[in-house]
Amino acid sequence: MEDDVFRTIKNPSKGIYKSKGSKFMAFGYPIRTEEEAKLKVKDLKKRFHNARHHCYSYKLGFDDLLYRINDDGEPSGTAGKPIYGRILSYGLTNILIVVVRYFGGTLLGTSGLTEAYRSAADDCIRNAVIIGCTIDVNFEIHFQYKQIDRVMRTIKEESLKIRSQEFHDICKMELSVRKKKYHRVAALFEEVRNLKLIVQ
């Protein structure tokens, strides 16, 4: 896979695993921020308020530094870690998986818990649509209105995404481009007289 492409899930998905009366319901979500992950977990805790545990893991970004594992009262390493392990094994990021457990009255032991959370997360991912997305660079350009024809030609030729635009004597545009094309596009804009480029 190219170095500016990442894998995530397209839409929310569900999975389930049952063992000795306990039910493990997994919920997967595509996410972009930690705040979004926290809100999803909070919502599930509210929806399934009578469940014993709400264990989760999420991963964000592309350098394996931004992730979270939470066992929510289960023995350390038996819930969040196996969930995270499934996220890594499928090569996913920008994803949250929460496993809601209803206790069935029989203790599963640490190995049984690990298998249950791993299996629920795995079922959730297998039920999801996995997609490849490009890593994009967002940037602003400020330029004189008389340069607009040249700027718009570059935008069209390089298939840039326009995120916002303001046209006055000094124009401002917010643009997005695939990471691997950014340096070439930046060089093209640097040729435009008095154009200022700011990476966001």
Descriptive notes:
The chain has helices at residues 34-47, 80-89, 109-126, 148-157, 182-190, and strands at 5-9, 13-19, 22-30, 53-60, 66-70, 95-102, 130-134, 136-144, 161-166, 170-178, 196-199. By secondary structure, it is α+β, with helices and mostly antiparallel strands. It folds into 2 domains: 5-133, Impact, N-terminal domain (Ribosomal Protein S5, domain 2); 135-199, Alpha-Beta Plaits (2-Layer Sandwich). The strands form 3 sheets. Strands 2-3-6-4-5 form a 5-stranded antiparallel sheet, sandwiched between helices. A hairpin with a 2-residue loop joins strand 2 (13-19) and strand 3 (22-30). Helix 2 runs parallel beside helix 3. The longest helix is centred in the middle third of the chain and has 18 residues, at 109-126. It is elongated. The model has no long low-confidence stretch (mean pLDDT 94).
Secondary structure tally: strands: 11
Helix content: 25-40%
**What percentage of amino acids are in beta strands?**
35-45%
Output the structural class: alpha+beta
Q: Do you know the CATH architecture of the largest domain?
A: 2-Layer Sandwich
Shape: elongated
Oligomer: single chain
**Mind describing the biggest β-sheet?**
5 strands, antiparallel
Q: How large, in whole angstroms, is the Cα Rg?
A: 23 Å
Mean pLDDT: 94
Can you tell me the CATH topology of the largest domain? Ribosomal Protein S5, domain 2
Number of domains: 2
What's the short story on this structure?
With 200 residues, the protein is of the alpha+beta class.
Secondary structure topology:
Layout lengths: L4 E5 L3 E7 L2 E9 L3 H14 L5 E8 L5 E5 L9 H10 L5 E8 L6 H18 L3 E5 L1 E9 L3 H10 L3 E6 L3 E9 L3 H9 L5 E4 L1
Antiparallel strand pairs: 1-7, 2-3, 3-6, 4-5, 4-6, 8-10, 8-11, 9-10
Helix pairs in contact: 2-3
